């Protein structure tokens, strides 16, 4: 992608905006520029359905007057002085927030590493179209596939410029390339569908379009002629890595400092206690080279570090931005993420670290159970931990995957699930939330 970030021009504008905010009466201020460039092509049944291209540079300004804060956003071409004056006027009439403010100056990143996040490779619309068509052709060529959900290819980049009134100035850019395909197998009421995709920072690292399409087709065909299972209790459920990432995401949500401060997490009173099965570890590392969610500094200019969030099952850290940390009487750990004009805590490259047995060994150890490849619905209550979701996948009998299963519901409570989980060793770290195949004992299954 061209135009990596042009930091000098954007940094200059952001610095000028902060200076104007101070001149207009702000005690402190920060300015962010988010640059976005994207191009995508989608196809279906051998024809192009859409070709899209977008570019934007979005400016955001936060100003602080005492404990009052206001934020404004604008596109290029705006009047800098007018924007600053408007933000200050808004802050003067805003309610006080005892936890707001810039990050502590001592926490700011003075140096930060080159994480190799930007690939300048130019991918033309023609090349994207060819990749999408190749993926769809490969999916449709799988025996048993009867229709296409379409396929797509994309290339893009995002850049962040951040300037604060207390001395931070920095920028970085991240490229992103993707390919996807979806397929339908079977006929009439017996149709099943599935998909596959890949997303990477470097174009050369992408899976081949043919491979993505073939996997999508094979996944769809494997789901044909599903059965229902009998309702039962104390069922062991094995989560395919594709859905295990969602399980790890529930862990991340439960230890988010903003949720803890709002008292909306079922783990809010469990710091220093065992919350996962003994021996299990959760890490978060913003400094992985070419990591999918790596960043040299967070949305407040704070340099993070690799953290062991949960060690041997014991909770060690919350994800913290400056405001969440102040509310909890703690110090930020560099997990503040910009979302428009707001800053809130988030994970970076999160990993539920793998176990030491293969997925095949894990499935054999289950004996009889359910292997889940797809989840339906959002039945997770992060306040209580109650968990109930629709699922489909494959029956496990005598330690082997057998026939496909659909229209079942699995239920438990995340507190119990966290203590009954066993991990395989097949983690894929190409995703921002990574987890291996995992098994959870003692779940309730609602079927026929």
What does this structure look like?
The chain is an alpha+beta fold and 448 residues long. It has 2 domains: 7-220, PmbA/TldD superfamily (PmbA/TldD fold, 2-Layer Sandwich), CATH 3.30.2290.10; 227-448, no CATH class. The protein is built from 9 helices and 19 strands. It has helices spanning 7-23, 80-92, 125-140, 209-222, 241-254, 257-261, 322-328, 359-366, 414-419; strands spanning 28-44, 47-65, 68-74, 145-164, 169-185, 192-200, 232-239, 282-284, 307-311, 314-315, 336-339, 342-345, 350-352, 369-376, 386-397, 400-413, 421-423, 433-434, 438-446. The strands form 4 sheets. It has a 6-stranded antiparallel beta sheet. Strands 7-14-15-16-19 form a 5-stranded mixed barrel. The chain has a 5-stranded mixed beta sheet with strand order 10-9-8-13-18, with helices on one face. A hairpin with a 4-residue loop joins β4 (145-164) and β5. α1 packs across α2 (80-92) and α3 (125-140) packs parallel to α4. The longest helix is centred in the N-terminal third of the chain and has 17 residues, at 7-23. It is globular and about 70 Å long.
Can you tell me the number of structural domains? 2
Number of helices: 9
Largest sheet: 6 strands, antiparallel
Strand order of the largest sheet: 3-2-1-4-5-6
Shape: globular
Total DSSP E strands: 19
N-end to C-end Cα span: 52 Å
How much helix is in the residues?
A: 10-25%
Helix-strand sequence: HEEEHHEEEHEHHEEEHEEEHEEEHEEE
Question: What's the mean pLDDT score?
Answer: 95
Provide the gyration radius in Å: 24 Å
Low-confidence stretches: none
Portion in beta strands: 35-45%
**Secondary-structure-derived class:** alpha+beta
């Amino acid at each position: 992608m061209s135009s990596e970030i042009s930091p000098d021009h954007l940094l200059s504008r952001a610095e000028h905006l902060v200076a104007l905010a101070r001149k207009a009466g702000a005690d402190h201020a920060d300015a962010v520029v988010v640059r976005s460039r994207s191009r995508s092509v989608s196809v279906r049944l051998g024809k192009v359905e859409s070709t899209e291209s977008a570019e934007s540079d979005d400016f955001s300004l936060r100003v602080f007057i005492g404990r009052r804060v206001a934020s404004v956003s604008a596109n290029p071409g705006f009047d800098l002085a007018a924007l600053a004056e408007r933000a200050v006027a808004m802050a003067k009439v805003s309610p006080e927030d005892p936890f707001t403010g810039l990050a502590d100056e001592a926490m700011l990143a003075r140096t930060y590493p080159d994480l190799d996040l930007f690939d300048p490779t130019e991918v033309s619309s023609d090349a994207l179209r060819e990749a999408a068509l190749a993926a769809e052709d490969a999916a449709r060529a799988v025996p048993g596939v009867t229709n296409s959900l379409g396929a797509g290819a994309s290339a893009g980049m995002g850049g962040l410029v951040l300037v604060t009134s207390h001395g931070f100035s920095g920028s970085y850019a991240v490229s992103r390339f993707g390919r996807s395909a979806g397929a339908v197998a079977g006929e009439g009421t017996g149709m099943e569908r599935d998909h596959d995709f890949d997303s990477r920072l470097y174009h050369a690292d992408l899976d081949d379009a043919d491979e993505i399409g073939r996997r999508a087709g094979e996944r769809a065909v494997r789901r044909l002629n599903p059965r229902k299972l009998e309702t039962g209790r104390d069922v062991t459920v094995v989560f395919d890595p594709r859905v295990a990432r969602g399980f790890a995401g529930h862990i991340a949500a439960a230890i988010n400092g903003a949720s803890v401060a709002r008292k909306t997490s079922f783990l809010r009173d469990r710091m220093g206690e065992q919350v996962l099965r003994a021996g299990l570890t959760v890490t978060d590392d913003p400094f992985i080279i070419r990591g999918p969610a790596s960043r040299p500094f967070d949305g407040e200019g704070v340099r993070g570090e690799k953290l062991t969030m949960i060690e041997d099952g014991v909770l060690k850290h919350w994800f913290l931005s400056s405001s969440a940390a102040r509310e909890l009487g703690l110090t930020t750990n560099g997990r503040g993420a910009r979302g428009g004009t707001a800053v809130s805590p988030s994970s970076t490259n999160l990993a539920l670290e793998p176990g030491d047995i293969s997925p095949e060994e894990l499935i054999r150890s289950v004996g009889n159970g359910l292997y889940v490849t797809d989840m339906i619905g959002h039945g997770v209550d992060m306040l209580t931990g109650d968990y109930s979701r629709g699922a489909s996948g494959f029956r496990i009998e005598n330690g082997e995957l057998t026939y496909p299963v659909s229209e079942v519901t699995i239920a438990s409570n995340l507190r119990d699930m966290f203590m009954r989980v066993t991990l395989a060793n097949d983690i894929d770290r190409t995703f921002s939330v990574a987890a291996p195949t995992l098994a959870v004992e003692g779940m309730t299954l609602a079927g026929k």
